[in-house]
Amino acid sequence: xxxxxxxxxxxxxxxxxxxxxxxxxxxxxxxxxxxxxxxxxxxxxxxxxxxxxxxxxxxxxxxxxxxxxxxxxxxxxxxxxxxxxxxxxxxxxxxxxxxxxxxxxxxxxxxxxxxxxxxxxxxxxxxxxxxxxxxxxxxxxxxxxxxxxxxxxxxxxxxxxxxxxxxxxxxxxxxxxxxxxxxxxxxxxxxxxxxxxxxxxxxxxxxxxxxxxxxxxxxxxxxxxxxxxxxxxxx
Length: 235
What we know:
Blueprint: H1 2-22, H2 28-79, E1 83-90, E2 93-100, E3 116-118, E4 131-134, E5 169-173, E6 192-199, E7 208-217, E8 224-227, H3 230-233
Antiparallel strand pairs: 1-2, 1-5, 2-3, 4-6, 6-7, 7-8
């Protein structure tokens, strides 16, 4: 009986020893396999994740453009005053300014003014993540008056050159919330467009990637709608 007990204890000890040895850690081969699997998954997921993040940024930026335009229009109707909204890109970061404008020929406020805010402040866009474009003749700060307000340059948006500190686009609504007359006093008879896009990867310019969104401001009544790609934005 005593011999049988001793044999049982020996067998149990051997079994425990094998179990402990087997679960003592990963072998080098197992670690290599795990690292390879993680690397493969990262290579597959990374481009898709980056595309998702860029799409979210552009969508949010376009929503912010639409919101700024609607806010300016709403303020114009509420206060019964001319309101303007200006867009620019300062040091690679999109900016917006909404302000009362007693005369359409007035220039937008200087970029040092607190009236300028980062577009979509809650998104905290970093330098070069989102760019803004338009089909308006850009405001030139060297001019004494904003003669290009509400003046369309072309039907299509120029996606090779983004707005900047020296290329500011301004859209103005009159006291009824419709597009104010152009500086030459003629009716605003053309569709205005403000577009946003992710920058083209590897480009040293401000050219846009394929990911684009835009807001149309319709003639006279000031109605607005969204375009979801370059084809729609250049209709």
